[in-house]
Write a structure and sequence with these properties.
This protein is of the alpha/beta class and 425 residues long. It has 16 helices and 17 strands. The N terminus is likely disordered.
């Protein structure tokens, strides 16, 4: 098979994603397809120039296609391929390419076999799924009834796929991407994501300004990706040699722990909970949490990782003072004298849960997430965090902002980072 426009693809190949469906535009569903496809393409050296969501309307589809071809070499469309009358993508594409529909027996056999496998008689309307524009290459969809369709026009490739996520993913991985890699020359793409915690984007940039200037060059790029309680740095490179790119990126990434020792988390993953879990597992330890203001969020983050049952024992969400006292063994005198949001109480919480659940290490949080409940001495955003290991107990007070959701996220991230630093000692 001939490889098309090698120089254009190697240096500038761009893709565009078009999602079709009123349900996306009215907010009835979230467009997860585009994010998934963009990540898949990026990992294979193909950059997405634009993502567009449009309504199920012929003129919108035609205009989006015309517009996309001014920017991109590969246009990927999802949605509008069902058997019902409101799914008009196939007919619109047929008219767009001045084509006609033809019946494809192999597609019909595939659709029928799918219904047979379910023990269901195929509705007559699904026969239309086997009718496709005569000039397209059909992409067999073994997960659904609508085939994918591959078109070429003016050195551009246009691919239409169903909007059902698992059907789209199957076609992208099994049909579309292999064809793209065969027909087009794509560059090597290498990147590493570095996770930092406990420092804002602006402050981080002040520290890493000189480092950033050395990283940026003709074949490397640096992206700053801030979120609540953390900032990710992505160093990426594109070129003809994967080995050379990996070596160059590794050189810069190795410099970061010394530059930001208090905020560096790791570079193998962008999830702090993964890093912490790996450290606990490596030591052969177990962990538990006692959570007040974070309401079990730290436990959720830890258990969202596959395999966490090897080291996570459990959590006690001690939201009330009664639970702190009766379940965790926190002294009522400590609560009465110091308040629930205090060094004494959070340290008793972490020691209590570690003893109660019999774990090697533990995390505890107690704070005022907001938006109410603050005072002059303890304003909203005041969070006490304690971690316990066989070496002892460490606690620290943090002052976050007024946003409840962000406070919970930042406290959770900070607590995990605090434990990570103790595990690395």
């Amino acid at each position: 098979m001939v490889k098309y426009f090698y120089q254009i693809v190697l240096n500038e190949m761009k893709a565009e994603i078009i999602t079709i469906g009123d349900e996306i535009l009215i907010g009835q569903i979230v467009d997860t397809n585009s994010a998934w496809m963009a990540n898949l393409l990026y990992n294979h050296g193909i950059e997405v120039a634009q993502i567009t969501s449009i309504t199920d309307e012929k003129n919108h589809i035609v205009n989006a296609l015309d517009d996309a071809q001014t920017r991109a070499d590969l246009i990927l469309i999802t949605g509008g391929l069902g058997p019902t009358k409101d799914d008009i993508t196939k007919d619109t594409l047929c008219a767009y390419f001045n084509d006609h529909l033809e019946f494809r027996q192999d597609v019909f056999n595939q659709v029928k076999s799918l219904f047979d496998s379910y023990g269901v008689k195929m509705p007559a309307i699904n026969r239309h799924q086997a009718e496709v524009p005569s000039t397209c290459i059909t992409l067999m969809n073994k997960k659904g009834t609508a085939p994918g369709m591959w078109f070429r026009r003016n050195n551009k490739v246009i691919v239409s796929m169903p909007g059902v996520p698992y059907e789209m993913k199957y076609l992208m991985e099994q049909e579309v991407l292999p064809r793209v890699k065969t027909e087009f020359e794509t560059p090597e793409l290498v990147y590493k994501t570095i996770l930092t915690q406990g420092i804002g984007e602006s402050s981080l940039m002040e520290i890493l300004g000189g480092w950033e200037n050395t990283v940026l060059n003709d074949d490397l790029r640096l992206a700053w990706l801030p979120a609540a309680g953390k900032v990710r740095l992505r160093v990426s490179g594109k070129g003809s040699s994967r080995i050379a790119l990996e070596a160059k990126i590794a050189t810069y990434v190795k410099q970061l722990p010394a530059l930001i020792p208090d905020h560096y988390v790791g570079h193998e993953t962008d999830a702090l909970e993964v890093e912490v879990g790996n450290l606990i597992k490596k030591k052969g330890w177990t962990v538990s949490t006692a959570e007040s203001c974070t309401g079990g969020n730290i436990a959720h983050m830890l258990t969202a990782i596959a395999g966490s049952s090897a080291y996570f024992e459990g959590s006690i969400v001690s939201y009330s003072n009664k639970v702190k006292e009766t379940v965790l063994g926190v002294s009522w005198e400590s609560i009465k004298k110091r308040g629930a949001v205090s060094k004494q109480v959070v340290e008793e919480m972490v020691s209590g849960v570690r003893q109660k659940l019999g774990t090697d290490c533990a995390i505890a949080t107690s704070g005022i997430a907001g938006p109410d409940g603050g005072s002059a001495n303890k304003p909203v955003g005041t969070i006490w965090i304690a971690v316990a290991t066989p070496a002892g107990v460490l606690s620290e007070r943090f002052q976050f902002g007024n946003d409840r959701e962000k406070n919970i996220l930042r406290a959770s991230q900070t607590a995990l980072h605090l434990l990570q630093k103790e595990l690395l000692k």
